């Protein structure tokens, strides 16, 4: 996994730990969607939930579940908790050519940005003001941005057009969330620089939050039952509480 390199003391810096969690969380979210809407029988075009795949790729790995929750909170915080992003998204033009739809979009964006439930549900998973600072900060930011461009370019090799589109969109959304977090340090160190986002970045960011929200909901709604069913099949003698239940209890202790 990229970004995971130890320094001379053998320890991984906080920024690289954050990046590892974000990539892992995005990967887990994509896997949840694949397992949640899976082609079970090609001859009959039958789609449904593949619980074995869901368990094997995500639910049996507590760290992957935790990283998915972390990525969700990271994107949510970038979108709703940082003043620069909130002000920008509230004032942005959502011009689709349909006046009624534009007004509806603006209303929905404001509901998202100022939702009391989301504001209280988004703890501070890290202090973004302290990340990517110091002498190596600017260089690390450039490396991260380059890595995300490389990931997006690699997506062009994916054969499935739908998979390629969703993958590139979500990678861009995560890159946009990082851009917003990067702007916190830039405003402090480089003067009053207003956050600027392109239209496609806003679209990618909102779509990523939607996909992560759906993944988190699937884990919350289905996870314990899937884990129980699969672990009963694998080892009926196990008397320990499910690992996913422990992870969920820990995750929701933040809410």
TrEMBL record:
Tell me the superkingdom of the source: Eukaryota
- Chief subcellular location equals endoplasmic reticulum
Which co-factor is required? FAD
Stored Pfam families: ERO1
Might you report a single GO cellular component term? endoplasmic reticulum membrane
Record-linked InterPro entries: Ero1 (IPR007266), ERO1-like_sf (IPR037192)
Biological processes annotated in GO: protein folding in endoplasmic reticulum
| Entry annotated with the keyword Oxidoreductase | yes
A single GO molecular function term of this UniProt record: FAD binding
Q: Where in the cell is it found?
A: Endoplasmic reticulum membrane
- Report the family membership: Belongs to the EROs family.
- For this entry, the protein name equals (rape) hypothetical protein
Q: Which organism is it from?
A: Brassica napus (Rape)
